[in-house]
Design brief:
It is built from nine helices and 14 strands. With 257 residues, the protein is of the alpha/beta class. The protein binds zinc ion.
Length: 257
């Protein structure tokens, strides 16, 4: 049996930790201190650090954790991660905690962003998707194009519906406000918003989410739905194909208040 823990860090990050009660892996440790606290409390040895992309809030604690635990670091070959690390490309596999994590390249938020997928953790697939997919949203396009991000999200959307998706920011409530603006007749979205508001009132994370859930409520996985196409065209009359509809929705979100 493996245990998955979201460790809160900074204003709204989660540093995901998975352990088998002896050994642990952590994903995107932007800060070493909260990870070290959990390792000490639960008496765990850190074996592995997985990094999805180069942003500081995902890598800031890598050196200290590597130096204090001897954990092995894996990250995207195409990005500047604190060295030394094992560079990964599409379809590479990381074996840790007795699991095989498959590397999926998901450029868009950054140009070399990767995700980690393993088909069976306690009976369900597990995905660490960094800043590519959020509940109700997706990462900003800092380095990639709308076409790249759409293709990346299509890859994640094609994973099994019961895949547990570990997103790295608690952005859900603000994402859902936007989602309702562009997908106003979506009843599932309204119900999900109420559910997430309740969780946040109780200081509970809204994550992880699942791919099936996101397909129902996430506007960035729903850009081919007629309601979303129509909303995109309201924002930008020239939005007529998959990529331009996606680009319009993403641009709208960037300026949504
Ligand atoms: Zn980022």
């Amino acid at each position: 049996m493996l245990t998955l823990i979201p460790i809160p860090a900074f204003a709204d990050n989660y540093l995901w930790l998975l352990h088998d009660s002896r050994r642990a892996l952590v994903v995107d440790p932007g800060d070493a201190t909260p990870v070290q606290q959990v390792l000490a409390e639960l008496n765990l040895k850190l074996d592995t650090i997985l990094v999805t992309h180069h942003h500081r809030d995902h890598t800031g604690g890598v050196d200290e954790l590597r130096n204090t635990t001897g954990a092995k670091v894996y990250g995207p070959a195409a990005e500047n991660i604190p060295k030394p690390f094992d560079p990964l490309d599409e379809k590479d596999v990381v074996n840790t905690l007795g699991l095989d994590f498959q590397v999926i390249e998901v450029p868009g938020h950054t140009s070399g962003h990767i995700a980690f997928y393993t088909p069976d953790v306690n009976g369900k697939p597990l995905l660490f998707c960094g800043d590519t997919l959020f509940s109700g949203g997706c990462g900003r396009l800092f380095e990639g194009t709308p076409a790249q991000m759409l293709a990346s999200l299509d890859k994640l959307a094609a994973l099994p519906g019961n895949t547990v998706a570990c997103c790295t920011h608690e952005y859900t409530l603000s994402n859902l406000r936007f989602a309702l603006a562009v997908d106003p007749d979506n009843q599932t979205l309204t119900t999900y918003q109420m559910y997430c508001e309740k969780l946040r009132e109780q200081q509970q994370p809204t994550l992880p989410t699942s791919i099936a859930q996101e397909l129902l409520i996430n506007p960035f996985l729903r850009t081919r739905q007629p309601a979303l196409v129509s909303s995109a065209q309201h924002f930008d009359a020239a939005a007529h194909d998959d990529v331009s509809v996606f680009a319009a929705i993403r641009q709208w979100k960037d300026q949504f208040k």
